[in-house]
Design brief:
With 185 residues, this protein is α+β, with helices and mostly antiparallel strands. Helix content is 22%, strand content 29%.
């Protein structure tokens, strides 16, 4: 498959996923604006946010932006961690990972889907880390490699939507999928 075929195929795979409302390749102009916006993001209570997923995705040659609704499948791994240096002190929990924390007296639920491990808390300030996450639908069998996905900050998501002429809708969210082509070695 040639480059254009691989890119079009990757877009069609994304567009065909349940819950995907829009899927498009990001051009250099919106990529730069989105990276600049991500550098300004702070979390609740002025907690630092390190969106490693966005940083990693933006090192890839191509990025597909997806705007999705709640029917979209859940992520294969946690999309947010709370870190003190290299220690995970909190993480996103899914219904299928509840058994990891059930009955643990050192767990505090910050929300329905996020826990803090009280036995791991340190004196140092914590930060939220959004790691790169796998995206199994895009892979070497369809000409793509080094695939990572991530969620941009809400302000970055809005910037991307406006650039593509889409309205802001709180019921929708976005995912970015960064990848290189297998044949570009």
């Amino acid at each position: 498959m040639g480059k254009q075929e691989v890119l079009e195929n990757a877009l069609q795979i994304c567009k065909g996923l349940t819950g995907v409302r829009e899927a498009f390749l990001l051009d250099d102009n919106v990529r730069k604006a989105m990276l600049d916006e991500e550098a300004t993001v702070m979390g609740a209570g002025n907690t630092a946010v390190d969106n490693q997923g966005v940083k990693e995705a933006f090192t890839r040659q191509y990025i597909i932006g997806i705007v999705k609704d709640p029917r979209f499948r859940p992520p294969p791994e946690p999309t947010i961690l709370m870190m003190c240096d290299d220690v995970v002190v909190g993480k996103e929990i899914f219904p299928w990972t509840m058994n990891e924390v059930e009955g643990n007296e050192n767990v505090i639920w910050l929300s329905d889907g996020f826990v803090v491990f009280t036995d791991r808390i340190q004196e140092k300030p914590a930060k939220f880390v959004m790691p790169p996450v796998s995206f199994p639908e895009i892979n070497p069998s369809n000409g793509c490699k080094d695939v990572v996905s991530c969620s941009p900050a809400p302000t970055t998501d809005l910037l991307m939507r406006k650039y593509h002429g889409l309205n802001d809708d709180a019921k929708l969210a976005s995912v970015l999928i960064g990848f290189n082509l297998v044949d570009d070695e």
